[in-house]
Amino acid sequence: MVLGLRSKSRKSVSVQVDYFIHVQEVKPWPPSESLKSSRSLLIQWENGDQNSGSFTCGVGDGRIGIGESFRLPVTLCREVSRKGTTRESFLKNNLEFYVYDARREKAVKGQLLATATINLADYGVIKETITISAQVNCKRSFKHSTLPVLYVNIQPLDKDSSSSSPMGSLLKEVSLDKSESYSELTNEGNAEETEMASFTDDDNDDLSPHLSQTITSFAFEARGWSPPKRNQVHNIIAFLC
Length: 241
Hints:
Helices cover 32% and strands 34% of the residues. With 241 residues, it is an alpha+beta fold. It has two domains: 2-160, Immunoglobulin-like, CATH 2.60.40.150; 161-241.
């Protein structure tokens, strides 16, 4: 029984969360005149040994314009809480960024220029989008220069529903637009059918006497007897009188 309780306790130590990471920019940049020649950079991100990625970006207006996003599944391990503390804490889980000088005409990393680190354990299980600013550490020290800062947005994602992600919201809007268009087409089709039905009823009113007369004549002929003509009727009446 004791072993079973311990096993159950160990299973509840970790928490699985999904983040949507949006990397905005790094500014100010460049931190020195010597880095002005680097107009194209490659930024690589890593979280543990399993999750990593990279993207190229340009430099201009005193900043590195990035504007890239990615989804990041993270396993946060709970730290043993101290007595008297109610705040939930997790073990260190770093999301690391590396800024490289990109080689010309190729998305290949060259010289490492700077790094930045965000400890995801400091934020844990978030309920809404947060903005984080992380200090960028240059590999070379520059005197009389302002240290650049990396700006990142982190949004929580619901694994069971795609509507919580930005792409999911967009798909939902497209779906609603299609439903509205289908409803409009259906209403127009019903209106046309109603108009055609009304037109047919009017035609039936005009044709009903002729149609009745034709049907009566057809019934007599089917029995082998045709109705007398009008002049024959007058002759019969005169003869009887």
